[in-house]
Specification:
The protein is of the alpha/beta class. Among the domains are: about 250 residues, Aspartate Aminotransferase, domain 2 (3-Layer(aba) Sandwich); about 150 residues, Aspartate Aminotransferase, domain 1, CATH 3.90.1150. It has 33 helices and 26 strands. The strands form seven sheets. Strands 2-8-7-6-5-3-4 form a seven-stranded mixed sheet, sandwiched between helices. The chain has a four-stranded antiparallel sheet with strand order 11-12-15-14, with helices on one face. Strands 18-17-19-20 form a four-stranded parallel sheet, with helices on both faces. α5 runs antiparallel to α26. The chain is globular and about 85 Å long. It starts with 7 loop residues before the first helix and ends with a helix. The relative contact order is 0.14.
């Protein structure tokens, strides 16, 4: 019998995107549910998620649409943005991303789906790229120790302030800031200073340090070089005087300018900060961009954030790793002086590869051309009667036009150019890599000056405007990496070679607990490099960003609906900064209500380390609450701590589901107890992937959360950044969300608290990713994704439980979206450590789960909803095979000091050498279940971390080091 012909309506229905995002199909889900002991996803949800917190009814979100329709919507939003030529400056500049870098790094999942390089043996490509970034920064700033990037320039300056306070000989309360610093930097520094008792003094330092400030006591000074106004001044007199006073000097410097100007280190600076945005990273309406921070060698061990160092592997070969990990918040917790726990890796890689692509001569040529355009622009303005305020500059001019500034800016806008309206009498103009002769002429016309048709003749008669005493004379970027890749062929192969040395989601599963390494769909990523989103300056007039602002508004509303809160700020550009913003809102709320004594922050002992660090930065005192044997917050200890600090209690910070991967049943009661004592409840949103569509923190008792768009909402980790960490609050905290001095619309009415990021909407350039994810999934798709994430974790737990104890479970013996397995009994019995298991997983073709968090000697596994059953089974099979290998060690078949686990990972190079091990080459590199044709080969053997910390090398070592090896 012939099957009935499907109707046109049926044929027009596309496969819903959720079916592609969620790995296990209906048949596989049935198998997984049977393994877990349930008949349906709803039955599992009813058993796992406490009834008291479950969401009533579906989320009120727009109906899901397919990829083509969502991309068309994004095109429509993009078309509502007006991208004019950016000559606003203020730390953001037009730049050309070399297409070979755009296609092969920014748009390449081998780079953007990688995780933070905690497993360095399979992160050698991006670690080498980050070491190159550090070399660029160290060479150009003249300071030998540079980190692997910070969140943006303003955050880097705030971190420099904290570092200065820690190490300065002068112990006064004042951090002195030059008035010519970028206004957004000054604002972020003020935000970060006030809760910690630092007094920020902004003064014109062109005439030196004011004596009244010196008498008050200065621990640090911040200078801008060149200044926000464009002025290039010699900072040496201020530096010398600051040092006499025992203060630490930070110089915020433009990297491109430093190819021509004397570096800050040579001028006496102790710290240099800034942004690498103009090294090929799109404007993106403010981010993400890689900030930088470099220091004198004496301060290396005080450096905040990430630092890549050179160590050696088990064969004695040079190898890269993250160095000096004692700075981590997990170790220092409330004693940490920074809550920065990540970097802007993908953007730092782009900036580094931009320097590799151009080399020192290419960068200097771009800088010289930029400066020449500024010099000729100034010459034409002066010849036409306009007053250029400063006599020395690099790329930025301040032009005085009494009472005409607004008219000039408007005329330039009509010509397709954005200038900066400084005040009623002054206009700022910044040249950059994208400036052309036509745009110089258009600016002259906007000022109403004749200019010249013969720019070459003007060039002949116009001198440079860089001070001769500040011209750079030393060589920089001398390492061969900056000279070997001039052709596109060479550059392409170099990028491929680096990518091949890494492990990312495009190779296989990354089952990291608490980090949610899920699918970052290509359709979600597509829009971020569209010029209408990528090319917009963050301080462009708001009416030029209508599409962006609509996308931002819709994303805020949808995140509020999902979480049950009333207001959302997208400004924080990392989860740590979302934490800080949320705690600052709580602090401001208590103070506004006449309760400034409420400064105690209760934090469970199992919490993520940034919680405690953020609390201290928000001016709070951390009191630790015990965690019970089952992983739950110890309710008795919590109530005792609440009673002991009832009058001082500001907030409880708690992660839900718990850091141990469990749905705690008493969360609503915990929230009620804190509220009864007058405190607020902060629910860390790191584990929101277990709640979306099932429960809403803002409705089960929480007052504030930060979210991780780079976890739950599909922005990729990018090898350790970018991230977005929005803060979501109930209505009573909404007036205290972050504001921004240059864009009032970015904050609440009344201005809110100060900004926590340089740009008004933080890393706006990647918000289209999460917007697209929500639009593609819809309410039902999001709910199903959460249910499958919980199912996958319980499936893995059930499969592994006979082989490794599952440390924590909740109601019915179930876990949430991740499970913690305990290796400690095996370590005691056999000597095989958690690190041995993690490194052996590399031989099986996997990135290890989270090691030793929240409990030392354990693995936290989060499979996510995106991995299909075949990949889940491949992982479980590998873990079971590793357990069998551990048993062979325990039985004495393999010695404790020489077996496949302690020697893991194994490289291809080992196979060609002498083999003296008691196991075979095949057992080493092709264990059970590993197909030879798809084998991932780690580029190095196990790395000696202690050696790298003792012998710190954080810039590209001489090639001779490798040749000798």
């Amino acid at each position: 019998m012939t099957a009935p012909r499907p109707s046109l309506s049926a044929l027009e229905q596309h496969t819903p995107f959720a079916a592609r995002h969620i790995g296990p199909g209906p048949g596989d889900r049935a198998k997984m549910l049977a393994q877990a002991g349930f008949g349906s996803l709803d039955e599992l949800t009813a058993a796992a998620v406490p009834e008291a917190i479950r969401t009533d009814g579906p989320l009120r979100l727009p109906e899901a649409r397919d990829e083509a329709a969502v991309l068309a919507e994004l095109r429509s939003l993009a078309a509502r943005n007006t991208v004019l030529h950016p000559m606003i400056g203020l730390g953001y500049h037009g730049t050309f991303t070399p297409p070979v870098i755009q296609r092969n790094v920014l748009e390449n999942p081998a780079w953007y789906t990688a995780y933070t390089p905690y497993q360095p043996e399979i992160s050698q490509g991006r670690l080498e790229a980050l070491l190159t970034f550090q070399t660029v920064v160290a060479d150009l700033t003249g300071l030998p120790t540079a980190g692997a990037s910070l969140l943006d320039e303003a955050t880097a300056a705030a971190e420099a302030m904290a570092l200065s306070r820690r190490v300065a000989k002068g112990r006064g309360p004042v951090f002195l800031v030059d008035a010519d610093c970028l206004p957004q930097t000054v604002a972020v520094v003020r935000t970060r200073a006030e809760p910690t008792g630092v007094e920020v003094r902004v003064a014109d330092l062109s005439g030196g340090i004011p004596e009244d400030a010196a008498e008050r006591g200065i621990f640090g000074v911040l200078l801008q070089y060149p200044g926000a106004s464009g002025a290039v001044r010699d900072p040496r007199p201020v530096v010398e005087r600051a040092h006499e006073l025992g203060a630490v000097v930070t110089v915020a410097a433009d990297l491109l300018a430093l190819t021509l100007l004397t570096p800050p280190g040579e001028l006496g600076a102790d710290i240099a900060v800034g942004t690498s945005q103009r090294f090929g990273v799109p404007l993106g309406f403010g981010g993400p961009h890689a900030g930088y921070l470099s220091v004198r060698a004496a301060y290396a061990r005080n450096l905040p954030g990430r630092l890549v160092g050179v160590s050696r592997d088990a064969a004695g070969r040079p190898a890269y790793r993250l160095a000096l990990q004692t700075r981590e918040q997990h170790i220092r917790r409330e004693k940490a002086t920074s809550n920065i726990c990540t970097a802007q890796v993908l953007l730092a890689v782009i900036a580094a590869m931009y320097a590799v692509y151009h080399g020192p001569s290419g960068l200097a040529a771009i800088a010289r051309r930029t400066h020449r355009y500024a010099a000729l622009l100034a010459a034409g303005l002066r010849e036409g009667g306009a007053e250029v305020v400063h006599g020395a500059w690099f790329d930025t001019l301040t032009v005085r036009v009494p009472a005409r500034a607004a008219a000039v800016v408007a005329a330039a806008r009509e010509a397709g150019i954005n200038l900066r309206l400084t005040d009623a009498d002054h206009v700022g103009i910044a040249c950059d890599e994208t400036t052309t002769r036509d745009r110089i002429a258009a600016v002259w016309r906007a000022f109403g000056v004749p200019g010249t048709d013969d720019l070459d003749a003007l060039d002949v008669r116009t001198p440079d405007a860089l001070p001769p005493a500040l011209l750079r004379e030393d060589a920089y970027l001398t390492h061969p990496v900056f000279h070997e890749h001039r052709s596109e062929t060479a550059m392409l192969r170099y990028l491929r070679r680096l990518a091949d040395r890494d492990y990312a989601l495009d190779r296989g599963m990354i089952p990291l607990g608490s980090c949610t390494m899920k699918l970052n769909a290509t359709a979600e990523m597509a829009a971020i490099t569209w010029p209408e989103f990528a090319g917009l300056h963050p301080f462009a007039p708001a009416d030029q960003a209508a599409g962006y602002l609509e996308l931002i508004r819709e994303l805020e509303q949808r995140l509020a609906e999902i979480t049950g809160y009333d207001a959302v700020s997208l400004q924080p550009n990392a989860g740590s900064q979302g934490e800080l913003a949320g705690l600052l809102a709580v602090r401001a709320y208590h103070r506004a209500n006449g309760r400034p004594q409420r400064t105690v922050c209760l934090i469970p002992s199992s919490a993520h380390g940034t919680n405690a660090a953020s609390a201290v930065m928000a001016g709070m005192r951390v009191v630790v609450v015990a965690t019970g044997a089952n992983g739950d917050v110890d309710a008795e200890d919590l109530r005792a701590k609440i009673a002991a600090h009832a009058d001082e209690l500001a907030v409880l910070m708690v992660t839900y589901p718990s850091t141990h991967g469990v749905f705690e049943e008493d969360i609503a009661g915990i929230c009620a107890a804190v509220h009864e004592a007058g405190g607020q409840v902060y629910v860390d949103g790191a584990n929101l992937n277990a709640l979306v569509g099932l429960a809403r923190p803002g409705r089960f008792g929480a007052d504030v959360s930060h979210l991780n768009l780079h976890k739950t909402f599909c922005i990729p980790h990018g090898g350790g950044g970018p991230g977005v960490g929005p803060v979501a609050v109930r209505a009573h905290l909404a007036p205290y969300l972050p504001g921004h001095p240059l864009q009032p619309a970015a904050g609440p009415e009344g201005g809110g608290t100060g900004p926590v990021a340089a740009a008004p909407w933080g890393s706006a350039g990647i918000l289209p990713i999460s917007w697209a994810y929500l639009r593609l999934m819809g309410a039902e798709g999001l709910r199903t994704a959460t249910q499958v994430a919980v199912l996958a974790a319980n499936y893995v737990a059930r499969r592994l439980e006979p082989h490794y104890p599952v440390l924590y479970t909740g109601p019915g013996g179930l876990v949430a979206h991740e499970c913690v397995i305990d290796v400690r009994p095996l370590t005691r019995a056999t000597g095989v450590t958690i690190e041995d298991v993690a490194k052996r997983l590399i031989d099986y073709g996997f990135h290890a789960p989270t090691m030793s968090f929240p409990v030392a000697g354990t693995l936290m596994i989060e499979p996510t909803e995106s991995e299909d059953l075949a990949e889940l089974d491949r992982f479980c099979d590998a873990m079971i095979a590793i357990r069998a290998e551990i048993d062979r060690v325990g039985a004495g078949e393999w010695p404790r000091e020489d077996n496949p686990l302690v020697n893991a990972p194994h490289t291809a190079a080992q196979l060609t050498g002498e083999w003296t091990h008691p196991y075979s080459r095949r057992e080493a590199v092709h264990p059970a279940g590993v197909a030879p044709e798809s084998k991932y080969w780690p580029p190095v053997r196990r790395i000696d971390g202690a050696y790298g910390d003792r012998n710190l090398v954080c810039s590209c070592p001489p090639v001779a080091d490798y040749a000798a090896d």
